[in-house]
Specification:
- The complex is a heterotetramer, with two copies of chain A (153 residues) and two copies of chain C (84 residues).
- Chain A is built from five helices and eight strands; from the N terminus they run βαββαβββαββαα.
- Chain A has a four-stranded mixed sheet, with helices on both faces.
- In chain A, β7 and β8 form a beta hairpin.
- In chain A, α2 packs antiparallel against α3 and α3 crosses α4.
- Chain C has 84 residues and is α+β, with helices and mostly antiparallel strands.
- In chain C, 30% of the residues lie in helices and 31% in strands.
- Chain C is built from three helices and seven strands.
- Chain C starts with a strand and ends in a 6-residue tail after the last strand.
- The chains are: A alpha+beta (153), C alpha+beta (84).
- Chains in contact: A-B, A-D, B-C.
- At the A-D interface, β3, α2, α3 and β7 of A face α1 of D.
Amino acid sequence: MIKITHDNFDLETEFKCVSSDTNGAYSFFLGTVRSDLSSSNKKIKGIYLECYEELALSQLKKIRSKALSIWKLNECLIIHRIGKLDLGEKIVLVITASSHRANAIEACEFVIDSLKIDVAFWKFHLLNNDKKETVLQKNLDNAKMLKWKDVIN
Amino acid sequence: MIKITHDNFDLETEFKCVSSDTNGAYSFFLGTVRSDLSSSNKKIKGIYLECYEELALSQLKKIRSKALSIWKLNECLIIHRIGKLDLGEKIVLVITASSHRANAIEACEFVIDSLKIDVAFWKFHLLNNDKKETVLQKNLDNAKMLKWKDVIN
Amino acid sequence: MNITLKYFSWIRVKLKKSHDLIELNQTISFKELKNNLISKDPVFQEIFNDKSVKYFLNLTEINDDNQTLNNGDILALLPPVTGG
Amino acid sequence: MNITLKYFSWIRVKLKKSHDLIELNQTISFKELKNNLISKDPVFQEIFNDKSVKYFLNLTEINDDNQTLNNGDILALLPPVTGG
């Protein structure tokens, strides 16, 4: 299950989509809009998320397939919001479902780490002076992805 | 926030309890009743969860405090159900909230790993023949806890 | 003096009760209490022989058999936990 | 033949548009297209000099400047992604 959407989502509803009594363990990662994001220490009042939707969907499908096969997941759901989002709003949700918790937890972290550096979304900060500021990719995110090198190849 | 309860809970409602726009990252672990749990390959129709509530609360508080301080979390919520639970029902929820995802994810895993071996809950399988079967602790859970030794001492 | 014993999981099932109230004339050690219980019911021998069982006195784990028990104490007998 | 160019993030902002339709008389290579674009608007020089920009042709990353572009192709210019 992969969704790219302007709309907010409900965690209980999304859980029900992947829930089954063959699973015993679910790991969720939820990313939200933080108020103190700006690298230049300016206050922000929200973010704007741009997306190359056809490409992002195909990239998310690849990441999901890898996670399902490497960690023997029963399900993996990925939702990513686009457009204008206020402070505190949900941006991204990953849910992995497995019989065993170690698999669910590790796969969930792999999916969000991959999404951060490999999927066609771009963030802008909406500043209090009504300007938009491009968010730059964090070196940390690239470094973090290296940890998966041995697992996925 | 720590709760030991007979009642089911709603993920969106629990998320709202720990949600704040100073957090950007939330990691959830949700454990549910799996249908194929029995070590003896008997079918189960649910589980029964016993608890030494005063002790479990004090043990959960210690685990939560450790997680909050080691991973600089903004919040950590732990809910554990007790009593009779049907197949597929929620047993345990851990939510960790942080500015940074690596902290939230690692702390969440620490909390559930600790809970599995250090908190006064006991599971019974409810078998189809109406008998109760004590669930034994998994060696794997003890082994998994060793990975935290260097982090928490 | 009174000491409350609390039993959990298979210990509770084996003893067919969840707690006991022990009345004593004087302070005793944890070791003396164990011998006292075994003499009343040999099932306790099996419990105390199981190295995986833990003992909590007023919510704190006991690691010393010579620990003294006092009036009002609550002693819990805990098999390995299996929550989560 | 026609090639659609798609621009994202700071590239879109700098060019003040999200896409272009390029009309050509004949098949060209990716390298030739780049020179063609630079000659029309020197801002493209800055974009093509940025080693962090990636190029996707019909949803697949291009790693060869000699790749041939065909009628109906969609070429996207992507700065490093920042979703999640």
